[in-house]
From TrEMBL:
Residues 7-196 form the NAD(P)-binding domain. It comes from the Bacteria. Signal peptide: none annotated. This is NAD(P)H-binding protein. Pfam families: NAD_binding_10. InterPro entries: NAD(P)-bd_dom, NAD(P)-bd_dom_sf, Polyketide_Oxido-like.
């Protein structure tokens, strides 16, 4: 498949790119800083532009793709304050581009705790999310409202806390999961799960919670 990737320079995005290339897919990655691009590969085209503001670059990345994947996150600014509008802005650009380019399938990395799913987070991490991530998660929720209303073939992937551990292939997933303590899941497993959703097309118009 030809897959347009946003956030391919991030922790999960890089793993997604590496796994998708290894599986023989063609990837187009839009990055802000080419110096951070994933390693060169015959199957990888890197485009430079801002996913939040450069509609032309976003549309160019998406045009001709069979599916779109977002592993975008929210950067910390130099003041140490998280910018709260990245996801809402990027989602609007990507939805517009997908409509223009007539690309329907999108697999979007979000996080358990966004919107109504905060109630599903076990008590200890829920406290931390409320204290530290409420603005970031409000931005994610705003972007996701656009996605849910878009008419596109979306799947929202909701991992619990992610780690940089090796892929296990033994994670659980479902629209809801029973969770206790401080659940975690490896970014590499999340990337593999996302690639599986791109190629299988399941969890259509659904969220998929993922945890060890
Ligand atoms: N950390 C966790 O435990 C956890 C748990 C559940 C869900 N999540 C969510 O999973 C997603 C991926 O997490 P991660 O840790 O893999 O992400 P990450 O390493 O922080 O990477 C974030 C990606 O988003 C890009 N990005 C950030 N700000 C941007 C902006 N203003 N414009 C364009 N691109 C921008 C980054 O590009 P640059 O490389 O150019 O900065 C990078 O590619 C995030 O949405 C995160 O909230 C995280």
């Amino acid at each position: 498949m030809r897959i347009a990737v946003f956030g391919g320079t991030g922790g999960t995005g890089r793993r997604f790119v590496a796994q998708a290339l290894a599986a023989g897919h063609q990837l187009i990655a839009l990055v802000r800083d080419p110096a951070k691009a994933p390693p060169a590969h015959d199957g990888l085209t890197v485009l430079t532009g801002e996913a939040t503001s450069d509609q032309g670059a976003v549309t160019a990345a998406v045009t001709g793709a069979d599916a779109v994947v977002s592993a975008l996150g929210t950067e910390r600014t130099w003041q140490g304050v998280r910018a709260p509008t990245v996801m809402a802005e990027a989602t609007a650009r990507i939805v517009t581009a997908m409509r223009e380019a007539e690309v329907a399938r999108v697999v979007w990395l979000s996080g358990l705790g966004v919107g109504d799913t905060l109630a599903e987070v076990p008590p200890l991490p829920r406290l931390a999310y409320r204290a530290l991530l409420s603005r970031v998660y409000a931005d994610k929720a705003a972007g996701e409202r656009l996605l849910r209303r878009s008419g596109l073939d979306w799947t929202l992937v909701y991992p619990v806390m992610m780690t940089n551990g090796a892929p296990t292939g033994r994670y659980r997933h479902g629209e809801r999961l029973e969770l206790r303590g401080v659940p975690t899941v490896a970014r590499a497993d999340v990337a593999a799960f996302m690639l599986g959703r791109v190629t299988s097309g399941d969890y259509l118009h659904k969220i998929a919670v993922i945890a060890d």
